[in-house]
Design brief:
This protein has one domain. It starts with a helix and ends with a strand. Strands 1-2 form a two-stranded antiparallel ribbon. The chain is mainly α. The relative contact order is 0.20. The chain contains 7 helices and 2 strands, in the order ααβαααααβ.
């Protein structure tokens, strides 16, 4: 159940990076989009590595903080929701996540490399590592 719930949280967060229309501007918010890549990376690592789990409450708090940032910049809940529904922007987040993996010597298609990266992120207590835990 925990894995399923964290996956749902991560899916919601990843979809935050999805503007349905150009006038929402959320796709131009670099810090929000960086946060979405962090969440997407943590989610992919925990789904790919059986010995690494996700920290649901931390992920939820982080997701909520990204939404609050968007609201504080004047985006309405309707704009945020529209942003959550764009499949094209989800693909952009996945691409950025995969580039991050590649830059770290890992591959989204290689579970072993994602485990190595996950443990490195946990050890560094990076933003990605903060959302993960060794089992």
């Amino acid at each position: 159940m925990f894995r399923k719930t964290l996956g749902t949280v991560c899916l919601c967060l990843v979809t935050l990076a999805n503007p349905a229309s150009a006038d929402t501007g959320l796709s131009q918010e670099a810090d929000i989009n960086k946060g979405l890549v962090i969440i997407a990376a943590a989610d992919k690592i925990r789904r790919s590595c059986d010995t690494i789990g996700g920290r649901l409450f931390r992920a939820q708090r982080y997701a909520n903080s990204l939404k609050e940032v968007a609201r504080s910049r004047g985006y309405s809940d309707q704009q945020i929701d529209a942003f959550l529904d764009s499949k094209a922007e989800r693909a952009k987040v996945r691409e950025k996540r995969n580039v991050y993996f590649q830059n770290q010597g890992a591959s989204n298609l290689d579970h072993a490399s994602l485990c190595v990266l996950g443990y490195a992120e946990i050890a560094r207590n990076s933003q990605i590592g903060y959302l993960l835990k060794a089992r």
